[in-house]
Write a structure and sequence with these properties.
Length: about 290
Amino acid sequence: MTIKETLTTLPQYVLPHHTLSQLMSKLTHCENKLWKNLFIKQIIRHYGVDMSEALEPNIDAYASFNEFFTRQLKPEFRPIANEPGAIVSPADGFVSQAGQIKDDDIFQAKGKSFTATQLLGGNAERADPFKDGSFTTIYLSPRDYHRLHMPLTGTLKEMIHIPGRLFSVNAATTNSVPGLFARNERVAAIFDTEAGPMALVLVGAIFVSSVETVWHGVVTPPTIEKVRTWHYETDAPQLNIGEEMGRFNMGSTIIVLFGKDKADWQADFTADSPVKLGQLIGKTLS
């Protein structure tokens, strides 16, 4: 851990994460035109947001900053790879990590890891299909598109809301906080796919005011103390590859898990690589 990473990370241990996120939620949903336009312009300028890709490029059309932040894109800017067996990126962002799960262990950063069991709410039976499987962690920065899409066609079987902290998920914190993604509040969705079980884990972070899915709506808030679980045994939602499955109201991280010998990442799909929604990132092996 560098001195800069230490100074960035240590104060986060004592910050009131959820209180700050609630405050940010109020600010990002404020519909005062002067305030929300100023906020939007600052983010566009600071992060270099390309509004030519937005379905609605006029910032006056957004009722709040959050509407802008979760804006739709013109479909032609994010074509979905369609070759046989394609696994596509679920989001815009950059690859934090991609590789193999070692038994139950998922690599986070140098000297740090967490387990699939921890990530999926402490349920070993739920995590068992992903032992020795494949994973990727994709970070969405404030400049990115913040809707999340299906890497592969699947039928929803289970959703789990797991309580936790809300540490930042930027590179400095990822390098510094042990088990970061299994400590933060998160929503996991387990799908049946042609490649077997696939888990999509939407990890919250500081100032992330909420996480929502297309089949449920807003999952968090509320802040919870115990794991909540939903099972979809009848009338289970089926979502096609590239179809929207959820969104972050403010930015964060999505983790994708596949089982053993079920997915093979592309050779150039490696840590620190930028990715775009719909880009080919791997192929199914069964």
